[in-house]
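Posting this for the archive.
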Amino acid sequence: MRYARFLLPEAIARLFRTAGAVRNIALSWNVAPSQQAMVVRRHPETGKRHLDLLTWGLVPHWTKDLRQARRPINARAETVATSPMFNDAFARRRALIPAQALYEWQRAENGAKQPYGIARRDGETLAFAGLWEGWRSPGGEVVRSFTIIVTAANATMAPIHDRMPVIVEPPDWPLWLGETEGDAAWLLRPTAEHTLRLWPVSTRVNKPANNDADLITPLPSG
């Protein structure tokens, strides 16, 4: 999985009603693991929403050696609340990851993979359910990172892949971020049918170094 984030940071801040200064980051049509990306999280001290740059690939706060850390880019919805890797972050540090589109790859019988672009039918911003962590080294270095929660694919996604990111709808953002009381686990489900549309895109997206608006252009039909 990769994704595209080409809405300006200021627009994302307005959409998610975040507080504080907005960090500048270049638009990206090919956000890949290990890169920094925009994450909406509830600040642990102020309780306000902040839009911050975190690294994709979770480093748990209890990690001893950063060089040997696993850094998972995804967490399974079915086990995220109980897994030792994720359960503390699920209870205390949930986040939203804004995106305008995501990419997934369909494997053909000959082993080739065809990438697809996926976006909301209504054109609105996607908000992936995620977790964030803050890891501090003995020397004081701080690494803030995140992972995206995935679940079983809905009928729209199933023909190309058996998993999909959990997508949180705007009315549920406060619950997911811990701003309101309730059981956030019930949000860990496939998104409603007909929410998404998908289309084949160029294999140029396979390389993270390729990063331009043409990546999400549909391939010519026929």
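The CA atoms of residues 153 and 163 lie 4 Å apart. DSSP finds three helices and twelve strands in the chain.
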